[in-house]
Design goal:
Elements lengths: L1 H11 L4 H11 L7 H21 L7 E5 L5 H14 L3 E6 L8 H6 L6 E5 L5 H4 L2 H19 L4 E7 L1 H6 L5 H8 L7 E5 L5 H6 L2 E4 L6 H5 L10
Parallel strand pairs: 1-5, 1-6, 2-3, 2-4, 4-5
Helix pairs in contact: 2-3
Length: 231
């Protein structure tokens, strides 16, 4: 009698498609599978992927955070910018700490003058500026500029580069940034980069990637920042 009640209930529990997909991905990397076993698992993997895509078909403007001590946060974000430009979307980039030099990416993106606004509004590293009051004012000014793009439905993607650093140093407040992001159009993507992203921002985000530092040539070998790699 008990099993008559339990078995139907178990059958109603939806399958964990993500776990099934991960298990199959792991299974096919193991040696010893025959060609028939491999094809069977790949067929099942295809079915699961099709079901995942069918169940998750809605679109939404995302809040995306790239953080962590590893290299590549801005680079990954600029890849998203390139995709947006390739689709013909309007994009805005606001750089909060950078600005004392002309980054190479600014020269590259100048090829899309009708689609892209690129604003480098910082004055460089805080240890170079050595003026907290001025750094705070520059970050606040940059944020006001960023808001004009965040609130503008014409922009599909807005990159706030190194804004997490401004948050970490207290030049901006988390509430200030979250309130601004709440004003973005429903289909606009906002990308926020920089190490030390606050927990409240991570919680509010839709997509969070943490870059992990494993090795760095500056630390291990004394190799300086180089064109084409760091700038």
């Amino acid at each position: 009698m008990i099993w008559e009640l339990v078995i139907p209930a178990i059958a109603m529990i939806p399958p964990d498609l993500d776990t099934d997909a991960a298990n199959l991905d792991e299974a096919v990397t193991k040696s010893g599978l025959s060609e028939a076993q491999y094809r069977q698992k790949m067929k099942r993997r295809q079915e699961i992927q099709q079901q995942r895509l069918a169940e998750r078909s809605r679109e939404k403007g995302l809040i995306i955070v790239h953080t962590g001590n590893g290299k590549g946060k801005t680079t990954a974000a600029l890849g998203m910018v390139l995709r947006s430009l390739g689709h013909g979307y309007k994009v805005a980039i606001v750089q909060f700490i950078k600005g004392a030099w002309e980054p190479a990416e600014k020269a590259v993106f100048s090829q899309w003058p009708d689609q892209l606004e690129f604003r480098a509004l910082g004055e460089g590293f805080t240890w170079d500026t050595q003026d907290r009051q001025r750094d705070t004012q520059k970050a606040q000014d940059a944020w006001q500029t960023a808001l004009t793009y965040i609130q503008n439905p014409a922009y599909k993607t807005v990159l706030l580069d190194e804004v997490n650093i401004a948050l970490k140093h207290g030049f901006l407040t988390v509430d200030q940034v979250l309130e601004g992001l709440a004003q973005k159009p429903a289909d606009q993507h906002a990308i926020l980069t920089g190490r030390g992203a606050p927990e409240a921002l991570i919680e509010a985000a839709d997509l969070v990637t943490e870059m992990t530092l494993v090795k760095h040539p500056f630390r291990e070998q004394g190799i300086k920042a180089q064109p084409g790699i760091e700038f």
